[in-house]
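Quick check before the chapter quiz. The format below is the same one you will see on the exam, so make sure you can read both the input and the output lines.
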Amino acid sequence: MAKNIQGIRGMHDVLPEQTARWQFVEQHIREVLGAYGYQEIRLPIVEKTELFKRSIGEVTDIVEKEMYTFDDRNGDSLTLRPEGTAGCVRACLEHGLLHNQTHRLWYFGQMFRYERPQKGRYRQFVQLGVETYGMADADIDAELILLSRRLWLRLGINDSVELQLNSLGTIAERAVYREQLVAYFNAHLEQLDEDSQRRLQSNPLRILDTKNPGMQALVEAAPKLMESLGEESIAHFKRLTDTLDALGIAYTINKRLVRGLDYYSKTVFEWVTTELGAQGTICAGGRYDGLIEQLGGKPNYAVGFAMGMERILALLENREDLDNKQAVDAYMILVGEGAQKAGVLLAEEVRDCLPGLRLQMHCGNASFKSQFKKADKSGAEYALILAEDEVQNSQVSIKFLRTDQPQCTVSTAELIEMLKQ
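Here is the expected output.
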């Protein structure tokens, strides 16, 4: 016997009993984004490797260790997308969407990174990305935070998450701060762990985000980025916090919240939770004005966020009310050859009249008892029973599966009126 082929580690299946929760989240995502006037853009899963090397940086862990990269038959280096922002900017530049225009866009789909799988972190994972272009002021930064908060409220997880904010200032301000930071850590080189020593020259801001308990005191005493910001950057951040304050949105200013890439500027934010262990960030966003020029476009404004679906689903793990969302409304039981032929016609007639009804018709030969068990297991409210007598009299018997109402027999017209209600 041939050996079963297993799925790839870190690339998991979403089974039918799990997809109801995904659909619940996806539905609310579409509704909330639509309410704010955002438009969906659909992007390829595969991009040229150069796109990510140029946007993420060749000396980052993502590019050096985590990307799924291969040569196609023409010898071109291609990569399964590890994130969505670079592809979205590429598409907007390619199709001329950024010239004297503003856009509010979103996309949803699989991303790929080769890393150690654990709860909330997979090699194939699903992200929602929201990107905005052409808007310089802090009002659009605030809108993205308000939009994400409205989604948490809709999903019922607002009490499980906390908003953290910081400002990275401009690229020039951050360059000055970078020199101060490198000088500080060089003076305490013996206290840096191996990972931080590696980052010291290539990505020193990321040292501030270390999870090493032994380095917390050292990092806490490091120079503060906020102290290097100019008047305009401070004013931009204040406009954001003033808006959040006016709306009563709670937040924490986290001075260690950084991004390791140079194209980020000013606002950065994260929604975090304490309920998922080490994978506490469920949504990360910020302003990345420098990326468009870095990818060949003219200087422009950009701010967005990405959220991991698997982590959001993990926060909904104990929500029993989301189970059986795919249960059918009615299950049709067919007894006898004549009923099997008539049942197809009746089922289509009911679906024509009631497009929103979820009606499942039994297929294949089975006893009445067996069909009835399947009807009950389906989660349906009603069993619609069609046997020879019902076929001859153009009727249907209705068995109420979830209430104590007595079984009744009605005409097809009466059935449709009954199901409407």
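If your answer matched, good. The radius of gyration is 28 Å.
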